[in-house]
Amino acid sequence: MGSITxxxxxxxxxxxxxxxxxxxxxxxDEKSPTSTYDVLIVGGGISGLSAAAxxxxxxxxxLILDSQKYRNAGSPHMHTVATWDHRNPADWRAAARKDFDRxxxxxxxxxxxxxxxxxxxxxxxxxxxxxxxxxxxxxxxxTGVEDVFPAIPGYAENWxxxxxxxxYCHGWEEKGAESSGVFAEGEAAAVLPxxxxxxxxxxxxxxxxxxxxxxxxLAEDIETALNGSSAPMKVDSRKIxxxxxxxxxxxxxxxxxxxxxxxxxxxxxxxxxxxxxxLHEQLGLDLGPKGTxxxxxxxGQSNVKGLFVxxxxxxxxxxxxxxxxxxxxxxxxxxxxxxxEMWNQTPxx
Length: 349
Prior knowledge:
Elements: E1 37-42, H1 46-55, E2 62-66, H2 89-98, E3 106-110, E4 113-118, E5 124-128, E6 133-141, E7 145-148, H3 155-158, E8 163-164, E9 180-183, H4 191-201, E10 208-211, H5 216-226, E11 233-236, E12 240-244, E13 252-256, E14 261-264, E15 267-268, E16 272-275, H6 279-282, E17 307-309, H7 320-342
Parallel strand pairs: 1-2, 1-6, 2-3, 6-17, 8-15, 9-10, 9-15, 10-11
Antiparallel strand pairs: 4-5, 5-6, 7-16, 12-13, 13-14
Helix pairs in contact: 1-2, 1-7
């Protein structure tokens, strides 16, 4: 999330390791290997790297094209990930890339793919803005999503440090806060999701204010839902005009339209998100729930044969562990389909 790239991230340009060609490269003519990779992975985040970690176990050639645009780039810590609690996601990516060294079948390039097309002979061709191109027999799209912040001054500056989109991923470190806020806007602009966030916030703070940002009807509906509940929750229907940092690591100052302000230990809010880039539109991919890309379980096959999807763009359940799971699944599916086609057989799916 955000636009900050940790210092531990690799430089924008890096020499790719030498690629060891796999069996399919020599299928048509053993003396003249083609330049077509078995699998192209577009996206070098958690799901893309997890896909590659699966594919290499079947000795296929893999090309990872990494734009270095990561949804969690501004976050210094990962949570809910066994063995990697409270550690930097940039370090996780570096460790994952290091694991490929012993296989010799992975090529990694830092470039941004602008276009992908599928030829008549079922080969995918990816092209960058600089005009460089690559071809592959299968593609795993793992470019992710990007968060769309509401037009409130100071929102972006408080993102991650004072505004948390998931209180499992962020929040425990603020345990004991006197009060916190829930921003009932966008996907949270309804009674059930607002109270869902508020109940989680009460595990970390002593009281919660639900801000409906000028939506008086929603405020009334939430107050009705709170009747008979002893939960230390209240509703504020005033419109938020500015968010400000309180001068410490976390917390956020909420300024409302009447000129008043309040300091909250943190603000819980899940902003809207959208698919990153336009590759899904170029390829004519069907959309699924909440703007994700539709795919068939368990391997993430899209409506375009040979193109698989993984990570945040493939599921509304957008967590690190789900990115690992969908990446692993797509990384299994692409080779299985390719292997069946190599021998003119029917794949398992």
